[in-house]
From TrEMBL:
It comes from the Eukaryota. Gene3D superfamilies: 3.90.228.10. This is 2634_t:CDS:1. SUPFAM superfamilies: ADP-ribosylation (SSF56399). It comes from Ambispora leptoticha.
Length: 241
């Protein structure tokens, strides 16, 4: 199906195509991936495989973001230590779903900066690791091949990857919903694609609830995108949500 683009403002078209995509099969695993840094990163050999951190420190992770005007999406290699960090809690709650890809997202500097500044304010005490299920309206296989040219207006996967969670795109007024349990978010993973998209998002909030509802964009920062397929058992779980 050809996406309809006529109703889209030009600005949004540009934004959606602005995702820089990288595979993380590294030739130099064990070296910090920030270009200006020569430090070694933490590594671990498990079953003869070298597991590695992508950056030497959290500092390098954020410094790299300072250069970004578009989202940097890295398709994680299973030996990148972030892969297990994201996959394990997800699989614990949704053991029968099959993870097809995990992308580490580093949002553009303007988005990340607003979030970090918000975090430093005293009103908001804690950052919560939450999930956000959304729609895939384009061809997810193309997306994973690095062709992020989706121009479908309400495609949640591409819209959030490029611009973060935006309350103006919410289907629930200006409210954005995040769940601690991915089983809850599963019912929001819509679209006809057999692939489903769920974001792991940092959400700043005073409360520590199973569900967090926020209206300000800067309270949220997408960190990873999980693309997965579902089994019958998953669908059964959805009925209970
Ligand atoms: Zn470094
Ligand atoms: Zn899309």
């Amino acid at each position: 199906m050809k996406p309809s683009t006529s109703s889209l403002p030009q600005q949004q078209l540009n934004d959606l195509s602005k995702i820089s995509f990288q595979k993380s099969k590294l030739k130099n695993a064990g070296q910090c991936q920030r270009r200006e840094c020569n430090n070694k990163t933490q590594t671990q050999t498990i079953n003869f495989k070298l597991k590695y951190e992508y950056y030497c420190s959290e500092d390098c992770y954020w410094k790299d973001i300072e250069q970004l005007t578009t989202t940097k999406a890295v398709l994680l290699d299973k030996n990148d230590m972030d892969y297990d960090r994201v996959a394990k809690p997800f699989k614990e709650k949704l053991p029968k779903s099959k993870i097809r890809a995990i992308l580490r997202l580093q949002m553009p500097h303007s988005i990340s900066k607003a979030h970090r500044e918000c975090k430093q304010k005293n009103d908001y005490k804690a950052t919560h690791k939450m999930y956000h299920g959304t729609s895939i309206l384009c061809n997810a296989a193309n997306f994973l091949k690095g062709k992020q040219d989706c121009t479908i207006e309400n495609c949640g996967m591409c819209g959030i990857t490029a611009q973060g969670n935006q309350s103006s795109f919410s289907h629930y007024g200006t409210k954005m919903w995040f769940a601690k349990n991915p089983q809850t978010s599963l019912s929001y993973c819509s679209g006809k694609s057999k692939f489903k998209a769920m974001f792991a998002v940092d959400v700043i909030a005073r409360d520590d609830n199973e569900i967090l509802i926020v209206t300000k964009n800067e309270l949220t920062l997408p960190r990873y995108l999980i693309i997965f397929t579902r089994t019958k058992w998953d669908r059964y779980l959805t009925c209970w949500c």
